[in-house]
């Protein structure tokens, strides 16, 4: 699957669908005077904005490495995801404030059939968009598209909450302001999840024990000797990954022989895991500070 085309397609589909949903939900919110429906509408519009950001990020991250950025531009995807999280946080705060004001004023909302129809349509469309974004995000391993999927998912869930509130609106005058507050907290949680993943990748992550075990197993099938692989570091540049680690070889090996073994291991890792690696060779009796 072509990463750039898939990213563009997900973003375009999202922008079109969300723009249509925004018009429907905003109209229903204005007609009924519901903060929850209006908040849901703006949440949907923010999905369109985040999808536009995804499109721009895919374009920027697809640029080839240059002299100033030898590892490529893939981390634009994490930067875009952080921007989406920031956008969600602003929206969440705004609707939480409006919900509190409405609750203090004890304002009730009258919902009609149009609100139910629009909300049901929103739930179906938004969950479909979320599943599509998650699918594309997994296929091309794009964190900003996954973030866009979470944006769709939270919108679908907030619409479910709105629908429940509509059905019980006549029994509880405060239901609309309560729903607005709940949607706000859902947005804050989505913000946390998106920002956490993006920041972890930007700061750098420890290689998973599963990946290390697989690498050791692959090397062990070629070289029987215990090379004591250690000091693993991985750097995620989205488009590719850079892995560094140390191995220990017999003291009497020549430089040429040590270099040949290290290069063989680097080729094995690239062939089997699509990871560019750099292997540092140490004498077997050398006590490294990380040992």
Low-confidence stretches: none
Distance between the termini: 42 Å
Inertia-based shape: elongated
The strand count comes to 3
Q: What's the overall average pLDDT, rounded?
A: 78
What count of helical segments does DSSP give?
Answer: 8
Tell me the count of domains.
2
Strand order in the sheet with the most strands: 1-2-3
Amount of beta strand = 5-15%
What can you see in these coordinates?
The protein has two domains: 3-203, Cation efflux protein transmembrane domain (Alpha-lytic protease prodomain-like), CATH 1.20.1510; 209-283, Cation efflux protein, cytoplasmic domain (Alpha-Beta Plaits). The chain has a three-stranded mixed sheet with strand order 1-2-3, covered by helices on one side. It contains eight helices and three strands. It starts with a helix and ends in an 8-residue tail after the last strand. With 291 residues, it is mostly helical. 68% of the residues lie in helices and 8% in strands.
List the helices and strands and how they pair.
Elements lengths: L2 H30 L2 H27 L14 H29 L8 H28 L2 H25 L7 H29 L5 H12 L9 E7 L4 E9 L5 H19 L2 E8 L8
Parallel strand pairs: 2-3
Antiparallel strand pairs: 1-2
Helix pairs in contact: 1-2, 1-4, 2-3, 2-5, 2-6, 3-5, 3-6, 4-5, 5-6
């Amino acid at each position: 699957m072509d990463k750039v085309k898939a990213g563009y397609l997900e973003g375009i589909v999202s922008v079109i669908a969300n723009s249509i949903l925004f018009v429907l939900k905003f109209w229903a919110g204005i007609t009924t005077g519901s903060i929850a429906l209006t908040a849901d509408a703006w949440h949907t519009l923010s999905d369109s904005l985040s999808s536009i950001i995804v499109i721009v990020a895919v374009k920027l991250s697809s640029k080839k490495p240059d002299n100033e950025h030898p590892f490529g531009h893939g981390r634009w995807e994490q930067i875009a995801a952080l921007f989406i999280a920031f956008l969600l946080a602003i929206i969440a705060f705004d609707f939480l404030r409006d919900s509190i004001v409405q609750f203090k004023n004890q304002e009730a909302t009258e919902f009609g059939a149009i609100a139910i129809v629009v909300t049901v349509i929103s739930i179906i469309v938004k969950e479909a968009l979320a599943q599509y974004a998650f699918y594309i995000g997994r296929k091309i391993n794009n964190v900003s598209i996954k973030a866009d999927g979470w944006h769709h998912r939270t919108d679908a869930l907030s619409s479910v909450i709105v629908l429940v509130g509509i059905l019980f609106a006549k029994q509880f005058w405060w239901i609309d302001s309560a729903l607005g507050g709940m949607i706000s907290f859902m947005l804050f949680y989505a913000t946390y999840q998106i920002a956490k993943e993006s920041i972890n990748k930007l700061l750098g992550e420890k290689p998973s024990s599963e990946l290390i075990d697989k690498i050791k197993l692959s090397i062990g099938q070629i070289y029987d000797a215990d090379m004591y692989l250690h000091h693993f570091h991985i750097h995620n540049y989205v488009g590719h990954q850079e892995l560094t680690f140390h191995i220990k070889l017999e003291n009497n090996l020549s430089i040429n022989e040590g270099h040949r073994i290290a290069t063989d291991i680097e080729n094995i890792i690239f062939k089997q895991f699509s990871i560019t690696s750099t292997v540092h060779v140490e004498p077997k009796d050398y006590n490294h500070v990380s040992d």
